[in-house]
Amino acid sequence: MLVVVNLLVTQFCFAGFKATIPSPEDKMEDVKIGENLSWINALSAEFVDVYLNDDKVVSHLDVDSYDPSGNFDYSTAYSWRVDTVVERGSMEKIYTGDTWLFTTQSQVPEPPTVALLGFGCLVLVKTRKRR
């Protein structure tokens, strides 16, 4: 247990200008459509800019999560990153974060049709769409 704690402390010291520990994790698959993006802010962060597929979706955010509000499609690969913004007086420095990847879940299947038969039996009938 002590080794893990020391490893995490070392990671934070070297990553002082980058966000870490993304959720969803890098290269994660089957991410739910409504899931928020979250991370641990860099130690030096005053604000962050969040990018989704190279497009800035929010700037000067002062929290450690972003709600994409249903902008994800099923079975789609996305990239995202969090850039750290540090302000010193009238100067602003932006540190480009690591790019993380994830793939959203496949489309949710339609629920089966339920038929109630006599004698208290319940039968599930699988439905298929014709293509």
Give a written overview of the molecule.
With 131 residues, the chain is mainly beta. The chain has one domain (2-125): Immunoglobulins (Immunoglobulin-like), CATH 2.60.40.10. 10% of the residues lie in helices and 44% in strands. The strands form three sheets. Strands 2, 4, 5, 7, 8 and 9 form a six-stranded mixed sheet that branches. Strands 1-3-6 form a three-stranded antiparallel sheet, with no helix packed on it. The radius of gyration is 22 Å and the shape is rod-shaped. Residues 1-14 have low confidence and may be disordered.
What is the count of helical runs? 1
Largest sheet: 6 strands, mixed
Structural class: mainly beta
Please name the CATH topology.
Immunoglobulin-like
CATH C-level class: Mainly Beta
What is the helix fraction of residues, given as a range? under 10%
Principal-axes geometry comes out as rod-shaped
Provide the residue-averaged pLDDT.
82
Task: Give me the strand/helix succession.
Answer: HEEEEEEEEEEE
Query: Low-confidence stretches at least 5 residues in length (pLDDT < 50)?
Result: 1-14
Strand tally: 11
Question: In angstroms, what is the radius of gyration?
Answer: 22 Å
Q: Note the gap between the termini.
A: 54 Å
User: Under the CATH scheme, which architecture would be assigned?
Assistant: Sandwich
The tally of structural domains comes to: 1
The CATH superfamily name is: Immunoglobulins
Beta-strand percentage?
35-45%
